[in-house]
C-alpha cells in the first residue's frame, strides 16, 4: 500500500473495524525513494475494506494522492483475479 494511502487511513475515523486497524498497525514500512510503502499482510476482504475507506482520496485530493489510490486499487484488482 502506498504511504500516502496509509497516512490517510491512519487519520481516518470512519467504518474501519478492529481487523483493519490491526492490519494497519502491524504493517511494515519500507522506504522507497522519496516516500514509503506499507506492507500489510491481510486477507483480500480486509484490503477491499481499506480501499473502500480511501474512496475520498480518489475523488478530492492532490494528483499524487489520486495516483497512489489508483496504484493500490490496480494492485488489489490484479492480485484477486
Please provide a written account of the structure.
By secondary structure, the chain is α+β, with helices and mostly antiparallel strands. It has one domain (3-79). It is 59% helix and 12% strand. The protein is built from five helices and two strands. It has helices at 3-10, 18-25, 44-53, 55-59, 63-79, and strands at residues 28-32, 35-39. The chain has a two-stranded antiparallel sheet. A hairpin with a 2-residue loop joins strand 1 (28-32) and strand 2 (35-39). The radius of gyration is 12 Å and the shape is globular. The model has no long low-confidence stretch (mean pLDDT 84).
The biggest sheet amounts to: 2 strands, antiparallel
- Give the termini distance in whole angstroms: 18 Å
Low-confidence stretches: none
Number of domains: 1
Structural class: alpha+beta
Tell me the number of helical segments per DSSP (H or I, 4 or more residues long): 5
Q: From the alpha-carbon coordinates, what is the Rg to the nearest angstrom? A: 12 Å
Q: Percent of residues in helical segments?
A: 55-70%
Shape: globular
Number of strands: 2
What integer is the average pLDDT? 84
Amino acid at each position: 500500500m502506498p504511504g500516502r494511502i496509509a497516512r490517510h487511513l491512519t487519520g481516518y475515523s470512519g467504518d474501519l473495524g478492529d481487523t483493519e486497524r490491526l492490519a494497519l498497525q502491524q504493517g511494515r514500512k519500507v522506504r522507497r525513494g522519496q516516500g514509503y510503502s506499507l506492507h500489510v499482510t491481510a486477507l483480500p476482504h480486509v484490503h477491499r475494506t481499506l480501499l473502500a475507506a480511501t474512496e475520498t482520496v480518489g475523488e478530492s485530493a492532490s494528483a499524487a494522492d489520486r495516483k497512489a489510490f489508483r496504484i493500490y486499487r490496480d494492485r488489489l484488482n490484479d492480485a484477486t483475479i
